[in-house]
Specification:
It is an enzyme of class 2 (transferase). This protein is of the alpha/beta class and 594 residues long. It has helices at 2-19, 34-51, 64-72, 83-90, 144-156, 176-183, 196-202, 244-255, 262-266, 279-288, 294-307, 309-365, 367-393, 400-428, 440-450, 452-457, 477-498, 532-535, 550-560; strands at residues 22-29, 55-62, 78-81, 95-103, 111-113, 115-120, 135-138, 167-170, 189-193, 211-214, 231-232, 235-239, 269-273, 435-438, 460-467, 473-476, 504-512, 516-523, 564-569, 577-584.
Length: 594
């Protein structure tokens, strides 16, 4: 059963693939405009769809540049064009001729590409020599049945084509404007593809008596006059992306097309024949030195700009306006940037001043404790110095050793007082961060010492708790000490405001991990009154006389240490708050884990 289902599934998938048609695009040179090219060649596409199963052919009309670009981008797989463009493309992309067109109006001739040089009937121009220094109109510099065939004739006549004419105006397609330019006197002569003159007469667009063809000739069996040699007719070519089997089917279908088939009648041909020799075109191109190069693309751009001046002027105008606008935006941006930099500088200066005020506020709040700390060493110094003086005045030389001991105690107490003053000055003085190896344990002890009197006055116990193996960190000692004092002082204030029934407690817990240390300041106050983000915002305070800078400064200092700072309520079921500071171990490159 499973094998049967699998076979059915594969059969369905294969059938769906077989049922899909392959979309194929045929580029067609549109001498008379894209719409006329579609009307002419669409029946041929429908004929190929009938003859080659599983295909869906479409007409892709365009001029030389459009078809060259379409072939380069892979938008077309086939092309119907003159041998000139084929040789140009074949120098860049592998192409192969499938069949050559047999012209319907020339008894099936396979060499039916040439040029007719047309002037006004009333003009004095009789030969090509009379056009020296004159203004000429042509369709395209790469048009074999037009400008290139005429240049080939000039070379045979010994003329230097590059400087022979005063100006050559390439008007592109369709071809009607070429003769209109002659009619209106804008040019002296027009170089047109074979039968363009007769076609416009048949369509009633011009009067035959108003024009004359230079160097006229009418080959046997031809309906049109020609001024140059004739070259091989248009051919059907395929790119290398086309499967060989598909190319064979298309070639066979083209060869089997009869002259009376509606597709052949609409395409103005008597059918297709095997590709004929392109030797004449190759020799012509050799004389003209035609090469596939980037210069041809530049010439196309130059010609487009030449004959579309209004668009070129508009583009230049837009470019100039855009340039002026860009410069104005740059000027305004420069002004705004300078203003922003100045504002940022002022804000930074104000932040420094406010931070200094915050430090001064902290020192003012713990002033009594500092006075007590300093008073003790000063009293000891006074007592020891008086005892030493009394002994020296009594002439007790035998007690020299005890006197030296007193002097050492005096020195120790004076050093202690100096350290206290130094700590106070460090907190008040704003300076750049200086990173050094710091023992975080000593900083915690110093913080507890500075807040000792404050905690005793409010009957709050501050304790230290250590977990893990201690290590040094790289930090700014003064800045980190300010953070610890801020957080501990906030905890003391929160406990005092809550007025708990039990004794107030602040625990500074240090958790040493592998690559970082977490410092937690835990209190049993009332906890956070608002969200942590709001509390840490600048100028936000819950104190009547607070500046709202403490936590903001703490956050900034911790960020300078590449650490992390957070503020949360306790999660152990007790009231209170937990301030957590995470700092890197000395030498660690890993980011701290929150």
């Amino acid at each position: 059963m499973y094998r049967t289902l699998l076979c059915l599934l594969l059969l369905c998938c294969t059938s769906s693939v077989w049922g899909q048609t392959q979309a194929l695009y045929v580029g067609v040179l549109s001498n008379w405009g894209n719409q006329q090219a579609i009307e002419r060649w669409q029946p041929m596409m429908e004929y190929l769809n009938e003859q080659v199963p599983g295909t869906d052919f479409h007409v892709y009309p365009g001029n030389f540049e459009a078809l060259n670009l379409a072939m380069e981008l892979g938008q077309i797989q086939f092309i119907i064009t003159n041998p000139g463009q084929y040789l140009y493309l074949s120098n860049q992309y592998p192409l192969s001729w499938l069949a050559t067109m047999r012209s319907a109006r020339h008894n099936g001739a396979t060499s039916a590409i040439g040029s007719a040089i047309i002037v006004k009937a009333e003009s004095d121009y009789r030969t090509l020599y009379d056009l020296k220094g004159k203004v000429i109109a042509a369709s395209d510099p790469h048009a074999l049945g037009g400008y290139q065939a005429t240049v080939g004739l000039m070379h045979k006549l010994g003329m230097e084509s590059e400087n022979y004419f005063k100006e050559v105006k390439f008007l592109g397609f369709p071809l009607d404007p070429l003769l209109y330019q002659v009619r209106d006197g804008n040019v002296d002569a027009a170089i047109t593809p074979l039968c363009t003159f007769e076609d416009m007469i048949a369509r009633g667009l011009i009067n035959k008596a108003d024009y004359r063809i230079l160097n006229p000739s009418r080959p046997d069996g031809f309906d049109c006059q020609c001024s140059t040699n004739l070259y091989p007719n248009w051919s059907f070519a395929a790119s290398e992306s086309v499967d060989i089997g598909l190319s064979k089917q298309i070639t066979q279908a083209l060869m089997e097309l009869t002259a009376d088939h509606p597709a052949a009648i609409k395409a103005l041909l008597m059918g297709w024949t095997s590709p004929i020799s392109q030797l004449a075109v190759i020799q012509l191109f050799g004389e003209l030195h035609v090469h596939a190069s980037d210069g041809s693309r530049w010439e196309s751009v130059e010609n487009w700009l030449k004959y579309n001046r209004h668009w070129g002027i508009f583009a230049i105008f837009v470019f100039l306006v855009a340039t002026v606008y860009h410069l104005w935006i740059e000027y305004r941006f420069h002004q705004k940037s300078e203003s922003l930099i100045a504002t940022e500088r002022q804000l930074k200066q104000q932040a420094i001043a406010l931070e200094k005020l915050q430090s001064a506020s902290i020192i003012g709040e713990i002033g009594a404790g500092l006075a007590h700390e300093i008073n003790q060493p000063i009293a000891a110094i006074t007592s020891y110095s008086e005892g030493g003086i009394m002994r020296l005045e009594g002439g007790q030389a035998q007690e020299c050793a005890s006197t030296v001991e007193l002097l050492q105690k005096i020195h120790s107490q004076s050093t202690r007082a100096g350290e206290v003053v130094h700590r106070i000055r460090s907190l008040l003085k704003r300076r750049e961060s200086v990173m050094s190896d710091v023992n975080i344990l000593s900083l915690v002890d110093e913080c507890i010492s500075l807040l000792k009197l404050e905690s005793q006055r409010r009957d709050i116990q501050i304790t230290k708790r250590i977990k893990g193996e201690p290590f040094f960190i790289s930090a700014d000692r003064v800045g980190l000490l300010q953070v610890l004092i801020n957080l501990t002082k906030n905890s003391i204030d929160a406990i005092a405001e809550a007025q708990p029934a039990t004794e107030g407690k602040v625990v500074i817990e240090l958790v040493f991990k592998e690559f970082q240390v977490d410092v937690l300041v835990i209190d049993n106050g009332s906890g956070l009154v608002q969200s942590a983000d709001s509390v840490m915002a600048t100028f936000f305070t819950t104190k009547e006389d607070g500046l709202g800078l403490g936590l903001a400064i703490c956050n900034e200092v911790v960020n300078e240490h590449d650490g992390a700072f957070s503020l949360n309520d306790r999660v152990d079921g007790q009231a209170g708050c937990v301030a957590k500071v995470s700092l890197k171990k000395r030498g660690s490159e890993r980011s701290v884990e929150v």
